Amino acid sequence: xxxxxxxxxxxxxxxxxxxxxxxxxxxxxxxxxxxxxxxxxxxxxxxxxxxxxxxxxxxxxxxxxxxxxxxxxxxxxxxxxxxxxxxxxxxxxxxxxxxxxxxxxxxxxxxxxxxxxxxxxxxxxxxxxxxxxxxxxxxxxxxxxxxxxxxxxxxxxxxxxxxxxxxxxxxxxxxxxxxxxxxxxxxxxxxxxxxxxxxxxxxxxxxxxxxxxxxxxxxxxxxxxxxxxxxxxxxxxxxxxxxxxxxxxxxxxxxxxxxxxxxxxxxxxxxxxxxxxxxxxxxxxxxxxxxxxxxxxxxxxxxxxxxxxxxxxxx
Length: 315
Prior knowledge:
alpha/beta; 20% strand
């Protein structure tokens, strides 16, 4: 794996203000990232690694990232889909990176939705509001409201069991801000380690041609996102990538795969595709479930034992 391109490292910083009624009145979000568009031929260059090793070869240029539209590269899903009157999102383009970067499924949406939806739970707590109700109070899009309401019903959110060490979390997003809708609820058992037990998802992907295909895409995306969120991490030292094979690159095992329930919310709108819309909401739901279980917010991915212990010690 040492020669493969990797998904860029990303960092998000968020601040917001609430009015006396618990409504979000301002939101500032900064995102730092390398480029996500490192495919051969992108940016008008061959971008073939072997060319950089030829005698006289030039270093490979940084991977492009696309225009900061909210749908491309590191800004994908960086704009919250909530009704916020004073909203400002800034992309910080990083050009220096010792490791080749390129497109990882869903691009910046995984980190951005994780950050936004984790922060929404923190704001809900500051407002003394239920996380689902707080989101509904800030959502004007009827399709977004519908998938969120449906997943809360599917997961029996209002009557969920609250055993010690068990946590529930919710998250939602419209992929790219212009495609399919996905809302997720996660149930975890957590102390210093996380055991993901169940995922519920409700999706609106417009007109559905093949329901089984939609469910398969959403289930697969959910399990992949769970693996990213809980396990996967490229490691490297000052000279080389040290995650060289499946022994040194952790990934969710078959015995750790949760029960996944998917509900397709019918729509007569144009079809949008379902391939990547679960990545961000699942990450956000797991992060919120972990915080619910242990009472401490873990903001660094993946949500490993070491990260959880650090967050507990810092609290």
